[in-house]
Design goal:
It is a single chain. It contains 19 helices and 28 strands. A hairpin with a 2-residue loop joins strand 13 and strand 14. The chain folds into three domains: 4-173, Threonyl-trna Synthetase, Chain A, domain 2 (Threonyl-tRNA Synthetase, Chain A, domain 2, 2-Layer Sandwich), CATH 3.30.980; 209-234 and 270-469, 2-Layer Sandwich (BirA Bifunctional Protein, domain 2), CATH 3.30.930; 476-574, Anticodon-binding domain (Rossmann fold), CATH 3.40.50.800. Helices cover 37% and strands 26% of the residues. The chain is of the alpha+beta class. Keywords: Aminoacyl-tRNA synthetase, ATP-binding, Cytoplasm, Ligase, Metal-binding, Nucleotide-binding, Protein biosynthesis, RNA-binding, tRNA-binding, Zinc.
């Protein structure tokens, strides 16, 4: 296995080869930049109109062209030379001018007949080393990532040192496609996002809603055990509330325009915090009531750019397992740790082990509420808590919320991309802005600390990751249908109905496949629907008041008395087991 540096060089060299080939086939295209990225490379071109169908032709030409590439020849050049060499390519000239201004030296690299402006980082002998690559997709991308600039054509590819590694990676991509939550969401009728309702707005279908309801019930019950008070708050509120909280000043780009109600401006809520603050403010609070934990499965609405919307992973309306803990400053570290441990336990229940924690602190560039001393203290408290919880964390500048530092749980999706799910945030600012008080033990009025937390984060995003992680074969407690009864012949329909009734009365989600199909077809369809248990019933089973149990992975468990099966299924459901047998 070659090291990462070699892989980067290999992939960046492949980007050169791609640009050379595109210029050969489409002489009017303007190459811009072509870096290596995780698992591959891309190159952005202006003046190039192609589709995915053109990729195999480009790939073939790349294979032919690379045979003449025996090395990368480099040469130092002046800005004047660059301007001459890349005449008509304003992108290369813009980059070179900037490098020159920063005092960096300029280099060009030549292999075959192709010359590119480049800082270096190539393999030594492309004709020998650069053989195992594939072009993957075409997409639009703005020059330098800014919407103000022109949209360019980006070609993505991947390159590996051996055929075997390339094949492995392509297989992995295939597998990820099969697990894509948008595809499975459609097939399993979990959710839909359509243009009629609007992009980025989710309609949860019946099957997805069963899963969501199970998750919500689980969260609410667990939190009630931990002393949380669950509430419901409205989806809109007066604009003045959001001005007071600071959202209107510092979070406006994510908020939708105000609506007019009786000549007063109202906003749909981007966060639930100010609503929960109202319940704290209801009456004078004593230290004896703290920590006061107010929780809600709450929907929020945030603007996301249309180009960034992505299935359930990034949407414009979503629901959080939100809560706000009002506590004394002394309690804040322990409360933070409690939330942290709770989140870890939850992830275990859902079978997630591959996650990291990112502690977001301030950056110098952004705007935040409050003074330096407050921030230093809050950041220190968060670090203390993470250390005390013995967590594996890394610090990321600029990832704080505008009112305080936050710790985010990052979970990987099927493509290996990390998504922020759970979050815990320590906040000294909002209690001050809303002038929240409690009477301390010494009789003096003091300001509480607020902890904002959502262990699962957005239920929509969490659902996407669940779908991809399990490829739609959810743990049994979440499965929309837990058992499918499959009568072998029409003769067995009556017994199938009786079995159905017994299972249903035991609280199991069950269906009978009454279609006039072969058993083989019924099994195949139940497997497609990822139903955990198939209960096959024929004459033999009817006679012995039993069923033949089959699992969705094809495993044949054999005959079992109905009572015994109910006991097994109930146990797996109630313990939220990840296995079936
Ligand atoms: Zn290069
Ligand atoms: Zn909040």
């Amino acid at each position: 296995m070659k090291d990462q540096r070699y892989l980067d060089h290999l992939r960046h060299s492949a980007a050169h080869l791609l640009a050379a080939t595109v210029l050969e086939l489409y002489p009017k295209a303007k190459p811009t930049i072509g870096p290596s990225i995780e698992n591959g490379f891309y190159y952005d071109f202006d003046n190039l109109k192609i589709s995915a169908e053109d990729l195999s032709k480009i790939e073939k030409t790349m294979q032919a062209l690379v045979k003449d590439w025996s090395n990368f020849n480099h040469q130092k050049v002046t800005l004047a030379q660059v301007k001459k060499q890349f005449q008509g390519n304003k992108y290369k000239i813009e980059l070179a001018s900037e490098f020159a201004k920063e005092g960096k030296s300029l280099t060009i690299y030549k292999s075959g007949d192709f010359t590119d402006l480049c800082r270096g980082g190539h393999i030594e002998n492309p004709s020998h080393e650069l053989k195992y690559f594939k072009l993957l997709s075409v997409a639009g991308a703005y020059w330098r990532g800014s919407e103000k600039n022109k949209m360019l054509t980006r070609i993505y590819g991947t390159a590996w040192p051996t055929q075997k590694e390339l094949d492995n990676y392509l297989n992995q991509l295939e597998e990820a496609k099969k697990r894509d939550h948008r595809k499975l969401g459609r097939e399993l009728e979990l959710f839909t996002i359509n243009n009629e309702v609007g992009p980025g707005i989710t309609l949860w279908l019946a099957n997805g809603s069963i899963i969501r309801r199970e998750i919500e019930n689980f969260m609410v019950n667990e939190q009630i055990k931990m002393g949380y008070k669950h509430v419901y708050s409205p989806h809109i509120g007066q604009k003045s509330l959001w001005e007071k909280s600071g959202h209107w000043d510092l979070y406006r780009e994510k908020m939708y325009s105000p609506m007019d109600v009786d000549r007063t401006e109202y906003l749909v809520k981007p966060m639930t915090c100010p609503m929960h603050i109202q319940s704290y403010e209801l009456k004078p609070r004593s230290y004896k009531e703290l920590p006061l934990k107010i929780a809600e499965i709450g929907s929020v609405y945030r603007y996301e750019k249309s180009g960034e919307l992505s299935g359930l992973l990034r949407v414009r309306a979503f629901t959080q397992d939100d809560a706000h803990i009002f506590c004394t400053p002394q309690q804040s570290v322990d409360q933070f740790i409690e939330v942290f441990r709770f989140t870890q336990e939850l992830y275990q229940v859902f079978g997630f082990t591959d996650y990291r924690v990112r502690l977001g602190v301030r950056s110098k560039k952004e705007k935040y509420l409050g003074d330096d001393a407050h921030w230093k203290r809050a950041e220190q408290r968060a670090i203390d808590a993470l250390k005390k919880a013995k967590s594996n964390y890394f610090i990321s500048e600029g990832d704080a919320a505008f009112y305080g530092p936050k710790a985010d749980f990052l979970i990987k999706d099927a493509l290996g991309r990390e998504w922020q799910c759970g979050t815990v945030q320590v906040d000294f600012m909002l209690p001050e802005r809303f002038n929240l008080k409690y009477v301390a033990q010494d009789g003096k009025e003091k300001t509480p600390v607020m902890i904002h937390r959502a262990p699962l984060g957005s239920l929509e995003r969490f659902m996407a990751i669940l779908i991809e992680n399990y490829a739609g074969a959810f743990p049994i407690w979440l499965s929309p249908i837990q058992v499918k009864v499959l009568p072998i012949t029409e003769r067995n329909l009556g017994y199938a109905q009786k079995t159905y009734k017994e299972l249903q009365e035991a609280g199991i989600r069950v269906e009978v496949d009454e279609r006039n199909e072969t058993l083989q077809a019924k099994i195949r369809d139940a497997q497609m629907e990822k139903v955990p248990y198939m209960a096959i019933v024929g004459d033999k089973e009817e006679k012995s008041q039993s069923l033949s149990l089959r699992l969705r992975d094809g495993k044949d468990v054999g005959q079992m008395k109905i009572d015994k099966f109910i006991e097994l299924a109930k146990d797996k459901i109630e313990t939220k087991a990840l296995d079936l047998i």
